[in-house]
């Protein structure tokens, strides 16, 4: 019986690729945006990504934002949120501060400071022991970066018409190749536009959930000491647990073998889809797809991107996903895993502002009584 | 572990209802047709049925087909397919002809004869020991009933625009309350318009698949002896097996208790959605939904309906369905059931013309070598 379920799950990985993504499985590459009907019919309904080349040719941002001087001038008096980490990996797994053989879920240290100063930090990333990334997933483009509003569109017109709503959040991301986003998924339809530099996405369909080895990790936060330039990683108090993907797709060579043994379903299963999004291009990243992101800057030293999060439909696909997630891949080996699923399934979408799956789920088991208002509004980084 | 899977499956039944169908779960009732975008976004994408009131107010059929004289005149020289059964139940389970404690899958006896004569048979149904139903699910409206083409539309314009294709088949159904359609599902997006009389649908989402107790039944066909007016039921030779829903939602009172014990997941689980489609109304019956249909005629003595089958997308939802179907509801009690699933999952969509799930699957296990061309093109009746 265990073998039956294991083989059913593996058939599903294969069937999604064959049915939705073609032979050989691939991500569609469109020269120009689809019509609203085409977008709904061919991409949103079947939950299929696509890359669009000439996505926003008319946006002033494409030329203006290649000038740091323009950005500094336009945002000279603006205070923005800067995320600081020692490694470039925030909202990611890190050695547990008190028991180093274990892992925790580490969030960045967030500083509010004037944009020109924040930009200097991003450009200096890696020179010192600090990686700075300008991002804030709370609709920051429309709040912190309002002065740049005229350089882009407020929404993606054909997507707005297809989905029947305006974006729930519009986020700006200014970084360089030092910042990396670990595997996660979002409960949003995501339209992701790169303005300068490139972003390299690894993509896996929601049906591959068992391959991500989602586990509960204690939440921690980096604290940055301005004087010493050193980070400390502090567990949240009281303890909160975050369900997060365990897989790092790019382990160090000396750790590769160990990682393959720990996560065989990921490393020995179908390869993730790899999509490079260049300046001027847009990725449609469907809701619930797992994604990992690397970025590389252009000659200005920056990778700038903006993304539009539209509410997803919580429909039969979502119900099927929850069902799949509740079924262990193997009745024997995954027993521990499925025991922890109950915590994640206690998700309450209205609990946090972002509605993101990466929301911290406070474990009731440890008697946490923290006020909801104190929760971070967002957790994922890309 | 068995309990875990059982409860996961039952959660899925509940979650689909809560997420897609509202609280309390219900079928949307629209006064007029949706736009193509609304149809895709709110119904096709989430795989949700809807009933549309003033669906086709401009169709001449709505008034013309209330006159049997008009139909007889227009189709006076047309030869049509008449389905004959002793009970009104075709493409349905019946006692096995040689081992009466078992069941088989019985198809109607099909006669080709002039429309006026065929109509007389339908109108006389029940008076003798014969129930006649005018139907043929091979696009019969555009072939056999071409003379009526001007009375309806060739397609449903807003659905064609939404789905991006023309109907694969358009079928006409002329019967009365003696004909009943047993539970089944179709691999089509179905737009079902009632012209005269009423049809009462029982609907269950695809996620309820375990509740239908789909089993393999040997295929049989009624043979009608014109002289004696008697039917015999003959097994197909060589034997073929049809996966079919085992549940009769309206058992005789004296059999009710036994049926509840045989099919507890159906009778003790969430009630099916009940939708009555009246003359002039249209039901959007999404692909893969299980449906059972009763009909009642108006004062003309006939129930006339026409339905448009559009190709469905074989996408992530379909892959999830196959996965769900491959997981036994209970690891102990459903073992026998899941052993037979392998036969159904050998489906090959291009194997038959109709592409319908109800296609006979020839069991290779019994060494059947029948020529594919001899397979019936369609099996379900509604």
Gist?
The structure is a homodimer of 382-residue chains. Chain A is of the alpha+beta class.
Structure characterization notes:
Chains A, B: One of its GO terms (cellular component) is endoplasmic reticulum. Chains A, B: Belongs to the JARID1 histone demethylase family. Chains A, B: GO terms for molecular function: histone H3K27me2/H3K27me3 demethylase activity. Two copies of one chain form a homodimer. Chain A has 382 residues and is α+β, with helices and mostly antiparallel strands. The first copy, chain A, has one domain: Jelly Rolls. Chain A has ten helices and 18 strands. In chain A, the strands form three sheets. A nine-stranded mixed beta sheet of chain A has the order 1-2-16-10-18-8-7-3-6. The longest helix of chain A has 20 residues.
